[in-house]
Amino acid sequence: MTEFNQPLSGNELARFSGPNTFMRLPQAQALDGLDVAVLGIPMDIGTSWRSGTRFGPKQIRAESAMIRPYNMATFAAPFDSLQIADIGDLAINTFSLADSLKIIKNSYDGILAQNVIPVAMGGDHSITLPILRAIAGKHGPVALVHVDAHADVNDEMFGERETHGTVFRRAYEEGLIVPDKTFQIGIRGSGYAASDFTEAQGWGFQQFPAWELWRQDLTEIGARIRKSVGDHPVYVTYDIDSLDPAYAPGTGTPEIAGLTTPQALQLIHALKGINLVGYDLVEVSPPYDPSGNTALTAANLLFELFCILPGVTSR
Q1: Structure pTM?
Q2: Residue 37 is assigned to a structural domain of this protein
Q3: DSSP letters along 233-255, please?
Q4: CA 143, CA 132: separation in Å to the nearest integer?
Q5: Of 87, 83, 85, 79, which is closest to residue 35 (Cα–Cα)?
Q6: Neighbouring-strand partners of residue 182
Q7: Can you give the C-alpha Rg of the chain in angstroms?
Q8: What is the pLDDT of residues 196-228, one digit of tens each?
């Protein structure tokens, strides 16, 4: 009978001590036997405004020590049926974005070759492009659930074509995602022109701007997405700045009037049943997060996404 890794209980060792792994899970040195690998990508050289996301994985891990293994709202018990471990951080090149993106792609190729589902803690949003390159190499073009304040479809930034603001234009151009199964949720803020959002609509992206979601329950939108993607492989990328800064101030490019934390949970809960092949959570910037609440929220969203992975059992 398989013994599944369990987060270290607060009744075994006080939560303010013990290993600095996600949810105090065991740290794995190899991928053998894993269903899910949690990893950090401590990088902020792809960002354009406030830096600091290189410290995101460490802080998310620290705040995750409070999370217990059973989901009281959905009855999901992901650690009862999936072998999950923290495999540490990728050794990116602090001085080269281009080299770091190659390192991420090559690392993901190795993880996916072992049929392990990757879960990344960023890091700025530029990490998602090489991840999608590897994911598409494994699964073909994927459906994409992109929760973010920004569409990230710029053609270039300061002449650079691979940054945190160009990810999904590159993913579209390279055929990594299915355009009519790409959903952008929570986008908002000011822009340079109307085409900042509408161009991607022309590609087939389905957009749910934040101003259309104020005071709405996102359960229905999640159900619509679930129906639309069917059994197609889905990747979820969750930018913490999708949340209003009142809930998540510790991020590099905050925008007012965003989603609430309950809305974030409604969306994730409603996605249960999708063929989720990987996900990331990006743009947590601890220098702007003095209370730790942004990283705490990020850690909980990562746990909630564990709870909708294929094969998760309920108690």
Answers
A1: 0.97
A2: yes
A3: EEEEEEEGGGB-TTT---BSS--
A4: 11
A5: 83
A6: 144
A7: 18
A8: 889 999 999 999 999 999 999 999 999 999 999
CATH number at residue 48: 3.40.800.10
User: How many structural domains compose the chain?
Assistant: 1
Instruction: Answer whether 292's CB lies under 8 Å from 63's CB.
Output: yes
- pLDDT for 194 beyond 90: no
3-class secondary-structure state, position 120:
strand
pLDDT at residue 1 greater than cutoff 70: no
Q: Taking the CA of residue 3 as centre, how many other CA atoms within 13 Å lie in the half-sphere pointing to its CB?
A: 2
Q: Could you give the residue ranges of the DSSP H alpha helices within 5-127?
A: 56-63, 97-113
Where in the sequence is the domain holding 259, given as residue range(s)?
22-306
* pLDDT > 70 in the chain, percent: 100
pLDDT digits (tens, 9 = 90+) for 102-160: 999 999 999 999 999 999 999 999 999 999 999 999 999 999 999 999 999 988 888 87
d(CA 29, CA 159): 39
- Orientation angle between helical segments 293-306 and 56-63, nearest 10 degrees: 80
d(Cα 143, Cα 113) in Å, to the nearest integer? 20
227, 238, 291: which is closest to 265 by C-alpha? 238
Chain center to CA of 161: 22
